[in-house]
Specification:
GO cellular component, one term: cytoplasm
Subcellular location: Cytoplasm
Catalytic activity: D-glyceraldehyde 3-phosphate + NADP(+) + H2O = (2R)-3-phosphoglycerate + NADPH + 2 H(+)
Strand content: 15-25%
Number of helices: 14
Radius of gyration: 25 Å
Keywords: Cytoplasm, NADP, Oxidoreductase
Distance between the termini: 77 Å
EC number: 1.2.1.9
Strand order of the largest sheet: 16-19-20-15-14-22-23
Length: 496
């Protein structure tokens, strides 16, 4: 498929190469990692299984390249990023095709992801020039007991080598959201893409290669997590880790020593619906928020907490909308496509069966074929059901009926996650009070949770992460402050 045209050099036979030191390489391991198409459940692509030695070399060349890159003028770094963004958008079709085959993302959403990624890279270039072009100047006599004999200059300098680990659900967008800020800030980057999504990521990296970045500045190593995962995250040559994903992030944070971390982990995003809410707006947002990309988003609506008095009406409205969702292969642009792996589908089924056993109301019949699960709305869900607390990462949405706003807030805050939440009401005062009370990184008022626009701050509390993302925050996080103090001689006479 992508063995022709500009992407010809990234594949060798039927195995996609890894990228290091400015070129496409075959691993000395002689092994490959298979990528299973979620729709056909057959091997669709193969990527190189890199060795620890190859990872070492990639990090070594990243360290060397970074030293020179840090001296490269900001405007030049920005120019290359703009170039990469243009190439990425120009080749959106083959990259989107990989997303359809590797992660069963509906075709139109796959194209949107690539275009959004190009826009993100361009914005990084602009924002980086603004942020990093400014320093700070302090004078010493602003602190008690001091004369004006010291001038302090502060600027932002790069951290060094940034390790970027994006998840399967946005393997291109969540890779560039780490690469763009790292590169403009003067860092080098080692990308470890998810297995499913690796081929789309390799295509994206090739667009950066074509833009003409210095060799060694960007690497993309593929392979088994068991072989190179811990080796990468605990590598002494890594100066920063930006990770998006699930529980693995907690393990990484325990093992990585003295390295700045940017982590966006799971979510159980709650949607609180008040009695005065516009129910048509709520239904549209819950269906979009709960079921787009088959619910495989950390910002998906994961639980709807609905006031009892409007629950019946709202559930009916949601049910009518769910009935209109198309189910099938991603090539046909269906709303609901197969979930990523068989083990994911089995996990989702486990949550559904637990809810059935404990008496939840099924608004549709539960249906599954292979990795494809039909959308399911569960009403009258109670706190003793696993679906109340666990993140399904699939097209299954629980509705919990509540009798007070306090009850809704209590449920939301009892979760060990705190990524996003939303509240629907026409009363702005109530909305603000509820937002203040919800222990989540972001609260959306009258809209489903969402990560974008990509320059908005994006962060999670509790088990949902460390640090804050969004282009501006990522650039700041991937730099450190450097201070230079000029000490003036104490004047022996008064001038002037």
């Amino acid at each position: 498929m992508s063995g022709s045209g500009i992407f010809a050099e990234i594949i060798d036979g039927d195995v996609f190469n890894y990228y290091a030191d400015g070129k496409w390489n075959k691993s000395s391991s002689g092994k490959f990692v298979p990528i299973i198409n979620p729709t056909t459940r057959k091997i669709h692509f193969k990527v190189q299984a890199c060795t620890q030695e190859e990872v070492n070399k990639a990090i070594e060349s990243a360290k060397i390249a970074q030293k020179l890159w840090a001296k490269t003028p900001l405007w030049k770094r920005a120019e290359l990023l703009h170039k990469a963004a243009a190439i990425l958008k120009e080749h959106k079709a083959p990259i989107a095709e990989c997303l359809v085959k590797e992660i069963a993302k509906p075709a139109k959403d796959a194209v949107t992801e690539v275009v959004r990624s190009g826009d993100l890279v361009s914005y990084c270039a602009e924002e980086g020039v603004r942020i990093l072009g400014e320093g700070k100047f302090l004078v010493s006599d602003s602190f008690p007991g001091n004369e004006r004999t010291k001038y302090c200059l502060t600027s932002k300098i790069p951290l060094g080598v940034v390790l970027a680990i994006p998840p399967f659900n946005y393997p291109v967008n969540l890779a560039v959201s780490k690469i763009g800020p790292a590169i403009i800030a003067g860092n080098s980057i080692v990308l470890k893409p998810p297995t499913q999504g690796a081929v789309a990521a390799l295509h994206m990296v090739h667009c950066f290669h074509l833009a003409g970045f210095p060799k060694g500045l960007i690497s993309c190593v593929t392979g088994k997590g068991s072989e190179i995962g811990d080796f990468l995250t605990m590598h002494p040559g890594v100066n920063c880790i930006s990770f998006t994903g699930g529980d693995t992030g907690i393990a990484i944070s325990k093992k990585s020593a003295m390295v700045p971390l940017q982590m966006e982990l799971g979510g159980k995003d709650a949607c609180i619906v008040l009695e005065d809410a516009d129910l048509d707006l709520v239904a549209a947002n819950i269906v979009k928020g709960g079921f787009s990309y088959s619910g495989q988003r950390c910002t998906a609506v994961k639980v709807a907490l609905v006031m009892e008095s409007v629950a019946e009406t709202l559930v009916k409205k949601i049910k009518d909308k769910v009935a209109k969702l198309t189910v099938g292969p991603p090539e046909d642009d269906c709303d609901i496509t197969p979930v990523i792996t068989e083990s994911s589908a089995n996990f989702i089924e486990g949550l559904v069966m637990d809810a059935k056993k404990k008496g939840a109301t099924f608004c549709q019949e539960y249906r599954r074929e292979g990795n494809l699960i039909w959308p399911l709305l569960l009403d009258n869900v109670r706190s003793d059901m696993r679906i109340s607390w666990e993140e399904p990462f699939g097209p299954v949405l629980p509705v919990i009926r509540i009798n007070s706003v306090e009850e809704g807030i209590r449920h939301c805050n009892a979760s060990n996650f705190g990524l996003q939440g939303c509240v629907f009401t026409k009363d702005i005062n109530k909305a603000m009070l509820i937002s203040d009370a919800m222990e989540t990184g972001t609260v959306q008022i009258n809209s489903a949770p969402a990560r974008g626009p990509d320059h908005f701050p994006f962060q999670g509390l509790k088990d949902s992460g460390i640090g804050s993302q969004g282009i501006t925050n990522s650039i700041n996080m991937m730099t450190k402050i450097k201070t230079t103090v000029i000490n003036l001689p104490t004047p022996s006479y008064t001038m002037g």
